[in-house]
Each structure stands twice: as structure tokens, then as C-alpha cells.
Design goal:
The chain is mostly beta strands. The protein has one helix at residues 46-53; strands spanning 2-4, 14-18, 28-32, 38-39, 41-43. The two termini are 26 Å apart.
Length: 86
């Protein structure tokens, strides 16, 4: 999966890039709303999509550095290309 610039941005949210100058991490574009909600978007490769269609799973790794965990939610959004059947 590749992090991409978020399309959905909440009103008043700021676009940021986490780890922009940290070579040990990859840059992570995000949208941060005034109430502290951070939203990122990811593009899947054809291979990743194929694995999911065949019953693969999505794993989430949280690097908390032994700090309290934050709430997390995951969703799948409709493609913008209109290829999804209604």
C-alpha cells in the first residue's frame, strides 16, 4: 500500500506530511482536523487487491512507543471512477 494525498478533507482541516524529514520513515500525507482527527488515504496495488479478493486480510501496525493508544477506524470508500455497480 502506498500513502496518497487525502481527497476527503474535513472543514477547517490542515494538510500535513508526517515524517517528511525523517529518513527512517516514509512520508505520510494526512489531513488533520481542528478536533484532532487525523485522516490518511492509501492506494492498493493490483497484487494487494488480488490477495484481498482471495480472502487476504489487512493488518494494521501501530507504533505507539509504549504511549497510550489512540482510537482507530478503517473504512473502504467507493472509487471515483464510477466502475462500482449500484
Amino acid at each position: 500500500m502506498t500513502p496518497i494525498e487525502p481527497i476527503a478533507v474535513h472543514e477547517g482541516a490542515k494538510r500535513v506530511v508526517f515524517a517528511a524529514n525523517q529518513p527512517e520513515y516514509f512520508p505520510l500525507p494526512a489531513s488533520v482536523s481542528p478536533d484532532g482527527v487525523v485522516m490518511t488515504e492509501w492506494a492498493l496495488t493490483a497484487d494487494e487487491l488480488d490477495r484481498l479478493l482471495c480472502g487476504g486480510r489487512v493488518r494494521i501496525w501501530l507504533h505507539t512507543f509504549n504511549k497510550p493508544r489512540q482510537p482507530l477506524s478503517i473504512e473502504v470508500v467507493d472509487p471515483e471512477c464510477g466502475m462500482r455497480a449500484s
